[in-house]
Amino acid sequence: MKAKKSKVVSSMVAVLLVGSLAAGCSTNSNSGSETPKMSDQPKTEGKKEERSLRMMSAVIGGKTPEENVLFEKEIERLTGIKAKLEKPASDYNTKLMAAVSSGEKFDLLQVSKELMNTLTAQGILMPLTDQIKGSKTLQDPEVLPPQEWDQVKTKDGKIYGVFSKFQGGTMPIVRADWLKKLNLQEPKTFDEYYKVLKAFTEQDPDGNGKKDTYGLSTAGMYELQGFFSGAGLKQRYVEKDGKLDVPYSTDAAIPVYEWLNKLYKEGILDPNFATNDTGKMRNLFLADRVGMITYWDAWVGMLNNTRKLKDANTPFEAKGLPGIPGADGKYMLRRGDPDVWVIPVNAQSPKTAFEFIEWWHSKEGIVLGSMGIKDNDYTENGGKYELTQAGKDHAMDHGVPFWYNKKFPNPFGLLPGVKEAQDLVMKNATLELTPPKWADAEKIINEYSFKAILGEMPAADAVKKMREQLKSAKLID
Description:
Blueprint (H helix, E strand, L loop, with lengths): L1 H23 L27 E5 L8 H15 L2 E5 L5 H10 L6 E5 H9 L7 H5 L28 E2 L5 E7 H6 L8 H13 L22 H4 L9 E3 L2 E3 L8 H12 L12 H9 L5 E5 L1 H13 L7 E3 L12 E3 L3 E4 L7 H11 L2 H8 L7 E4 L2 E4 L1 H5 L24 H11 E2 L7 H16 L5 H14 L5
Parallel strand pairs: 1-2, 1-3, 10-14
Antiparallel strand pairs: 3-11, 4-11, 5-8, 5-9, 5-10, 6-7, 12-13
């Protein structure tokens, strides 16, 4: 999806800019005004805004077109706002940009931080800094931790998007039950990881008497940050003194590639790692074929839950690890780009849109975004919730599997291992920069990373060629 994103934006954003600026500059006068309570009609100068919203989202909403209609009705029941929520089944960014570039107007868009940055640079989005500062809800540290705003601030301190959910991060995920079975400690250094992964490969951790397990599987270069942490290197871009660089293309990365190549040569790394997708990687882990993968914190719980549902007595235990610390003793995990609500400058109902954003972080908003629609996904009696079969099938995810608001804890509790994994992310993870041309850089990085790991080129040569191509393509400074 990201490979298409920058091309779509660059081709369509100019048209969007003209239409948006012509129609919506006057909406910026809302900055700093008091946000109305959900029960009140918004106070506007002149003509009052209609309490209606046209929205577009990739993940928030019903699971089917029919359920999406119920989702819209639930928004109206809970807020009094008439909502039209458009949720394309595929190619979200392409369809979003096609719609707005053709002159269609939306009050709210749910986008990634990467797309938000691009739209912000083009003047497409309304700055929300003053409204956020004046919002009792969004300034409540129990609702949104103050430090989280650093993720979405521009260099000049402005904010154009408000989180739609809590976004976690990635890490190595280990079969903790295999560690116990083989009497191994959780690894912390490259040597310790090597010994553990080698044991997973050679000591029959699944107990079937066959040599059919691997120590590590990945989906290509997906989420190897926990290992590159040992060399103090971030994934994607970093910026220093105004210049962009890709740490994976520096000489400091050579020992990490050599370590991964050692795993590959000795049959410890799944030989299909370069062509795996994330589904294949997860399935190997669930099928007792591999002892470690690199993936999202939320999947620690989902992996555990999947096996528990199949066999309540299974010893299976997935556990998140912080990776390998650098020379300074610090771990460096990757935080996922947050999804945010943004308001275009040509929005017809900007005050109502911001009002909705605040409500989205309330108990009622969280219940809708997670559990879903009352009497369709869940029932409630005296504050006690019960999921229907549809609700169980939807896994408490209508766009908000996790949220920030500590005043409303998950009424069903978190899946096993998730809390510990999320704590690791919050303690050790940071965002990386994702400029619009990241997809082009990623192709070059993957090509030469694979050559180094597969032994098709010495790691030093692969890194040199990688860097040369990134520079010649003007993808690094």
